[in-house]
Amino acid sequence: DGSLFRIYVDGALVHTQPTYAPPAPTPVRWIGRVDNLFVGSIADVRLWTRVRSQEEIQADMNRRLHGNEAGLAGYWPLDGGTEDRSRHGNHGTLLANASLRLVQHPLPAAPPWSPALWVNGSWAQLPDHPSLILGSHYTQEAWIRPEINDDAFHGFLGNQPDAGPRSPSLWVYQRRSIHFVYGDGPWSQQGGITGPVLSGEPGRWHHVAASFDGSLFRIYVDGALVHTQPTYAPPAPT
Hints:
Elements: E1 4-18, E2 30-31, E3 39-48, H1 54-60, E4 72-76, E5 93-95, E6 99-104, E7 113-120, E8 123-125, E9 138-146, E10 153-158, E11 166-173, E12 177-183, E13 190-193, E14 206-212, E15 216-230
Antiparallel strand pairs: 1-14, 1-15, 2-8, 2-10, 3-4, 3-7, 3-9, 5-8, 6-7, 9-14, 10-11, 11-12, 12-13, 14-15
């Protein structure tokens, strides 16, 4: 929210962290990778240019959006394509053999089996568009189903050009933790790593949300607050 990151998993706040870094003027570009690659399924990705409360996250995490909600910067249900169903229309492109596969869907309002993005060394690329620059007050949300068998970093939403600034980005680390970072340049990047907030169970879906209010990160998992952390660097211009 300009000073605080919040990470939510399945609607629960799992991590908060303050930061003092300015926003980075570069857009979020990738689903399924950051500087490294995710393995598993991803569904219903949402980017917001405002801080969403835990109550708002919990109210909407199990339903489809209309696409015209206030502050919605991008909305990719990934239920049959990579179309952005927000008013901005930043449609994605599947790269490196990324595919849409039928999975048992996490959204109760969706059909029991419907497509989700499946990645393993592949990803979806979004347009380089100013509407995807989230600024210093933002929220990121996605349903993820990791299929990871190592303890490395696996980015699932964000952007990091080689040796460049990171836009707001999220990873799974050591199978059960969430790594979150943003920053303009290698010495002003801010973020952290939560404790083990994911189940680590193969095939288990989790809803992950991260918010930043300008000084504090908050991490939510499945609707619960699991981590808070201050930050001291400006957001990256991407």
